[in-house]
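User: quick one
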Amino acid sequence: DVKVTQSSRYLVKRTGEKVFLECVQDMDHENMFWYRQDPGLGLRLIYFSYDVKMKEKGDIPEGYSVSREKKERFSLILESASTNQTSMYLCASSLGHRTPYEQYFGPGTRLTVT
Amino acid sequence: KQEVTQIPAALSVPEGENLVLNCSFTDSAIYNLQWFRQDPGKGLTSLLLIQSSQREQTSGRLNASLDKSSGRSTLYIAASQPGDSATYLCAVQSGGGADGLTFGKGTHLIIQP
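Assistant: Done. Structure below.
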């Protein structure tokens, strides 16, 4: 079974803090993704990566950056957290970038910025 | 820009009924379409993936169809059970296999025992 894990289920941070959200997959997947989910807005793509050290902006990259130094790990960074970044953050991975493989999701991190 | 719409937003039916969830998308040039379920406070569980060249996929009591030309997909759930209660999300991938998904807002399904 594919396993996508996220470092925290719940996180509370203060405005202005630098926040790291970590995601690890154990199935040698090439592609990794970060989404956020908000009531009324649904899931929206923040960033994705199709290879180590590669990254692509999604629909809402402002205020975020990412890092992918190893194939299995994809980090989402909030450089200076703000209250409008309070959300559920979901990481996903898929096998390859040349074929339509399923995306598998982690359990999510609920981030509250106060 | 791709937009995905799911109708209805919420649905409540008695146990045992067959039901259909609808998904529509504005740009028919999709790579694939994926159906997920999400339980409250949890991540997403992949149910079915339909490639753009396929018309349908089946898994157990679930059947998903795809009509790319009309921009529609349906998820058919046979003989519904209380354990099927969840939010069902439809998502399309419009670029290549490495691109992210565009999601609908989901259908919140309640199966009454």
